[in-house]
Amino acid sequence: MRRIGVMVLMVTALFIGAAFADTHGHKKSAHGTTNKTSHSMHGIVINEAWARASTPGAKNGVAYLSIENHGSTTNALLSVTTPVAGRAELHTHKNESGVMKMEQIHSISVAPHKTAVLRPGGDHIMLLGLEKPLKIGSHFMMTLKFKSGSEKSIKVMVLKNNVKKKNKHNH
Ligand SMILES: [Cu+2]
Fold first, then answer.
1. Where do the domains of the chain lie, and which CATH numbers do they carry?
2. Distance 124 CA to ligand 1 centre (A)
3. What does the angle CA 135 – CA 136 – CA 141 come to, to the nearest 5 degrees?
4. Whole-model pTM?
5. Angle, CA 148 vertex, CA 164 and CA 109 arms, to 5°
6. Which residues contact 16 (CB under 8 A, 6 or more apart)?
7. Contact predicate 127/79, CB 8 Å
8. Would you give the DSSP letter of residue 67?
9. pLDDT of amino acid 31
10. How far is ligand 1, taken at its centre, from the CA of residue 153, in Å?
11. CA distance linking residue 158 with residue 11, whole number of Å
12. Helix (H, G, I), strand (E, B) or coil at 85
């Protein structure tokens, strides 16, 4: 019973949220500022996309972001492309008898109304074959492909480290 109550509340919140998002979206597009780091097309919202600044000569880089799924079905990030790297792979870290190892994964799934947080030590986007070093304060574009069929182009900020420490979501 309690679960059903919670579901009804969430669905109601979603409708209210959608109504707000719609009005907001129209206002934003009037000013030509819709193509920013966070959008809500197909119920997916990408936040806090950043990449670690690389040292000169570094061949690989790493990017992080959070994926909010406002849809009613499980979605998943399947692939990433970016002009700054030859190839981008989805990776996770696995603890193998006390040693943290990176491992390629084929998707990062996000349950309905949940957020998947990519962060140092966890899931991340590996940028292989950097065209040039990623400089602090610069930004680049990344295109994300989702299981739902949607694609998103987002702006990724290059930082020394993520200054915000507010991620409390656990996945
Ligand atoms: Cu990696």
1. 29-159 (2.60.40.1890)
2. 6
3. 70
4. 0.71
5. 45
6. none
7. no
8. E
9. 37
10. 21
11. 36
12. strand
